[in-house]
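lol so apparently i was supposed to do this last week
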Amino acid sequence: MVTAAIGLEFVKQFLNLNNPPEFVFACCRDPATATDLKEIVKSNSSVIIVELDVTKQESVEKAKSHVASIVGTKGLNLLINNSGLINSQRIGDVTREDMLKCYEVNAIGPLMVAQAFLPLLRQAAGQQSSEPMSCSKAAIINISSGVASITENSSGGMYPSRASKAALNMITSNLSLDLKTDGILCTAINPGWVKTEMGGPNALITTEESVEGIMSVLEKLKGEEDSGRFYHGVKGQTIPW
Ligand SMILES: NC(=O)c1ccc[n+]([C@@H]2O[C@H](COP(=O)([O-])OP(=O)(O)OC[C@H]3O[C@@H](n4cnc5c(N)ncnc54)[C@H](OP(=O)(O)O)[C@@H]3O)[C@@H](O)[C@H]2O)c1
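anyway here it is w/ NAP bound
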């Protein structure tokens, strides 16, 4: 079994930056069992564990209040929506429940999280209003998937995963338009096929390689033209929707 996860690797790589953020809010559904995160917190007081289940509105609101109570008027510069669920059912087996579950975690959850955290992102953007859009100003990064691309779909199947991540892509595009005047950058990123519980042991890259690639894409995002796009986190180029 693979225990590495992309979210945990994000926390590690943000801490390793030359100029790390003042706070890294690491969200998970059950902080009590988040042993790897708790180990990191022991030696890094800037990491704050926040309980969040993106499928429960009350949990989303509580997480937002938790973060707001710590950042105060500085707001939040970067929101990474990393929650994800895979379901590869094909036309013969897919159920209504399969579809709903994937939509909840992959599309509706990230949208409601973006909505809840918007006041904090606006606060951060407002403090650098003359600066071009960037992840150090204010940004929403949605972790999508290669299977979300309608243009690149050549093998079919995977109804819950494909449809829900394609919905996340539309949400990303929409957010980029709606939040343009706020100066908030919104982009979707495919992390590649990664060795995690979701990607499995045969995946092509490690979490370290995936997140290194994503971090270098994030660093380069500058200005309106880089918002509302769908990037490959490792190869760096855009992917057709
Ligand atoms: N691995 C791949 O090959 C691959 C390929 C394409 C896209 N992705 C995307 O990359 C992201 C990270 O996936 P991963 O590979 O690291 O998979 P993973 O190890 O299975 O992790 C799934 C993540 O989603 C979170 N999550 C699931 N349901 C949630 C909920 N209801 N509320 C809040 N968080 C929830 C989990 O949080 P907990 O800590 O609370 O469990 C965990 O952080 C996902 O969006 C996934 O779709 C991965």
